[in-house]
Design a protein that fits this description.
Blueprint lengths: L5 H19 L30 H4 L7 E2 L5 E2 L5 E4 L2 E7 L4 E5 L4 E5 L2 E11 L5 E2 L20 E8 L5 E10 L4 H4 L3 H5 L6 E6 L10 E8 L7 E8 L3 E3 L1 H8 L22 E4 L3
Parallel strand pairs: 1-8, 2-15, 10-13, 10-14
Antiparallel strand pairs: 3-6, 4-5, 4-11, 5-7, 6-7, 7-9, 9-10, 12-13, 12-15
């Protein structure tokens, strides 16, 4: 994969970090929106909360979506990963727990375009569905989703033109996730306003493990719901423990404990699939 100059990538990430923070975390500090279905600022009302959010209701290619595996069209392999260790910090962005890399953490190449890894964050339960799997609450102390997925992680990448590419992995309840374990329980329970330093970490192992991926064009799943995002969603679910789900939910504000946007209509978009060659 042809790599841009690392120094150039660092300045791209540095100069655009505020833009991404605003796009991915529009709720920071003012709670403009929530995930409470019956509230005046819930998911179905996002588009009416301000002109900057209009894409949430008027957009033609919104995310997340339901992926029907049998209808996904085959395409050539198109996901080259090239991650490396870099300093990172853990943040509570009010609506989601995020890991934000502070330097050149490598990235991916999609259709010949290089994207730099900027951050990852979690949604509980999952936002995307595969083959229409729905969620059913259990009477336990946590919310478990029968025949569905309990959480989803998004790795957000950006290119030199502020275009975004996201890789999504779904989780089901089971063994603890090794990547989340690296964050440590103490740092998740008490996140400083300036972020908790995690040392140098890599997204390499956390973004592998699936034999098949789905690809489609969509949007950010939080306001302002900006479109033009290249989505890659893994077919194979990762494992997460009940305790880890509670740790990720614990620091979040009311209205964001369950922070998954409902599935949006495909509106004629094509979903493709390809196998992993790495």
């Amino acid at each position: 994969m042809a790599k841009p100059n690392p120094l150039s990538l660092y300045f791209i990430v540095s100069s655009l970090s505020l833009i991404i923070a605003c796009n991915a975390d529009a709720s920071k500090g003012n709670h403009d929106f929530s995930y409470l279905e019956d509230s005046s600022n819930g998911p179905t009302k996002w588009g009416s909360l301000g002109t900057q959010f209009k894409s949430c209701s008027d957009g033609e290619s919104q995310s997340p979506v339901n992926i029907e595996a049998k209808k996904a069209k085959d395409q050539p392999y198109d996901l080259k990963r090239s991650y490396k260790e870099a300093p990172a910090k853990l943040f509570n962005r009010d609506h989601a727990i995020t890991v934000e890399w502070q330097g050149d953490a490598g990235g991916i190449e999609v259709n010949g375009t290089a994207y730099q890894l900027f951050q990852c964050h979690w949604h509980i339960p999952s936002e995307h569905t595969i083959n229409g799997k729905k969620y059913v609450e259990s009477p336990s102390i946590y919310t478990h989703f029968v025949h569905g997925h309990d959480a989803e992680i998004h790795f957000v990448h950006i290119d030199g033109n502020d275009q975004k590419a996201v890789i999504g992995f779904l989780y089901t309840i089971g063994k603890a996730d090794p990547f989340i374990e690296k964050l440590s329980e103490s740092k998740l329970k008490a996140i400083d306003t300036n972020g908790n330093a995690l040392g140098k970490i890599s997204a390499s192992s956390a973004t592998s493990g699936s034999k098949k991926y789905y690809r489609y064009r969509g949007s950010l799943t939080t306001p302002p719901c900006s479109e033009g995002v290249t989505w890659t969603v893994a077919d194979t679910a990762k494992s997460i423990s009940k305790e880890q789900i509670e740790l990720l939910k614990g620091p979040l504000d009311h209205g964001f404990k369950e922070n998954a946007r409902p599935v949006q209509e495909l509106r004629g978009r094509t979903v493709t699939q390809f196998g992993d060659k790495e």
